[in-house]
Amino acid sequence: xxxxxxxxxxxxxxxxxxxxxxxxxxxxxxxxxxxxxxxxxxxxxxxxxxxxxxxxxxxxxxxxxxxxxxxxxxxxxxxxxxxxxxxxxxxxxxxxxxxxxxxxxxxxxxxxxxxxxxxxxxxxxxxxxxxxxxxxxxxxxxxxxxxxxxxxxxxxxxxxxxxxxxxxxxxxxxxxxxxxxxxxxxxxxxxxxxxxxxxxxxxxxxxxxxxxxxxxxxxxxxxxxxxxxxxxxxxxxxxxxxxxxxxx
Length: 248
Fold this sequence. Notes:
Helix content: 40-55%
Organism: Nocardioides anomalus
Radius of gyration: 17 Å
InterPro entries: ClpP/crotonase-like_dom_sf, Enoyl-CoA_hydra/iso
Strand order of the largest sheet: 1-2-3-4-6-9
Number of domains: 1
CATH superfamily: 2-enoyl-CoA Hydratase, Chain A, domain 1
Strand content: 15-25%
CATH class: Alpha Beta
Distance between the termini: 25 Å
Order of helices and strands: EEHEHHEEHEEHHEHEHHHH
Keywords: Lipid metabolism, Lyase
Family: Belongs to the enoyl-CoA hydratase/isomerase family.
Shape: globular
Protein name: Enoyl-CoA hydratase family protein
Structural class: alpha/beta
């Protein structure tokens, strides 16, 4: 299973993504991740979630190889729906979600992290939305929660990445630590949250979402509409074929 979920005795639930080689999730993988977070949200014993990953990096987005090896648009539609479900599950989780990021955090990874309540990262972590290189759009909604508007646009148009150390300056990453201290740091922060009255914390999460100035679900779906247009025009397929070809 590419997604594991374990609730500890102290109420901290650790959700781990482990989909070698780069944690690029298949359609089913995105829905599995959404289900794990929905389960955490519905569990009254869960006080806080730590979302982490094994392997070389946190998340490399959707599995483009799966998309290009599937006839028609079923994989494209599935990936879009799966990403939407997973991002939504992070944002709407009834308890705070802490993203523990190491290595690369790309595309769908930014979608997850941008919707987290708190982000901690290792010194080697970098964040980016390379969608324009694969003929897609998406996660600008979530990158805009990590950096100011003009920087988000620059990163989006150029497909460049930004380091965790740079994000600390914008206040979107809470702490940057050596890789070997990442899980410990995330769990220490989670324990601090788990120590509070869960009734208050759940109310606080609902209140903060309620005063959020951006409807992240609606704005991300708006972005996805342009991705479908680019696919119907054949642009996305051409660029994804090039990406898969380079990886052979």
